[in-house]
Amino acid sequence: MLKSLSQRLRQSLLRYARAERGVAAIEFAFVGPPFMLIFFVTIESGLMMLTEYSLQSAVQDSSRLVRTGQAQLNPLSKAQFKTEICKTAKLIIDCSGLVTVYVRSDANFQTLKNNLPPLLNIGPSVGGSTSASGCYNPGQPAQPAAVVATYDWNFNVWGMSAFGNMGNSTTRRLVGFTIFMNEPFPTAPALACA
């Protein structure tokens, strides 16, 4: 009886070792979650890059209004200039209060460089840093100018917060930036930067 019990136990173990039912489910339980995480991180990263590219393109297109003097001669307010940026980027970006526009001009490029705030500080204040979102000075003819637009991307996929660059690490500030010399258009009324 003992021999037959050990023999039956050995046969049961061999049968269990050869069984393949449920193996796919167990393998998927190990491989599935990391695969899905990588898949969704890739999708969100691609959408974030597309959004930043759209913002950069919108800044490039809209900055022509400043460079050619149209924003100065047919005075555009800061809100109207933001609307021009949002017209180009509206398919990707929800502009309702989420895009911040900063336009500044100075006498020369060195002064402009020294007066531009860090790009991450343009937009809503995060983590106690001061926000530099109040400037709209498109400048005069033949003056250097800079146009910056920022958009805060909120991460949706778990684990993406490691790529955040704002104080709370759940958002990443996307930036569109251009710097140029205004063309020699007729003189327009001067605006002061706050």
Question: Brief overview, please?
Answer:
With 194 residues, the chain is an alpha+beta fold.
Write the layout of secondary structure elements.
Layout lengths: L1 H17 L4 H45 L2 H4 L4 H12 L9 E7 L3 H7 L28 E11 L16 E11 L13
Antiparallel strand pairs: 1-2, 2-3
Helix pairs in contact: 2-4
Notes on the protein architecture:
The protein is an alpha+beta fold. The protein has one domain (24-181). The protein is built from 5 helices and 3 strands, in the order ααααβαββ. It has helices spanning 2-18, 23-67, 70-73, 78-89, 109-115, and strands at 99-105, 144-154, 171-181. Strands 1-2-3 form a 3-stranded antiparallel β-sheet. Helix 2 (23-67) packs across helix 4. It is rod-shaped. The protein starts with a helix and ends in a 13-residue tail after the last strand.
- Helix and strand string, N-terminal first? HHHHEHEE
Distance between the termini: 97 Å
Q: Point out poorly predicted stretches.
A: none
Number of domains as seen in the coordinates: 1
Mean pLDDT: 83
Counting helices, strands and paired strands, the structural category is alpha+beta
Query: How many distinct beta strands?
Result: 3
Strand adjacency order, main sheet: 1-2-3
Largest sheet: 3 strands, antiparallel
Work out the strand percent. Answer: 5-15%
Number of helices: 5
Radius of gyration: 28 Å
Shape call: rod-shaped
Helix content: 40-55%
Oligomer: single chain
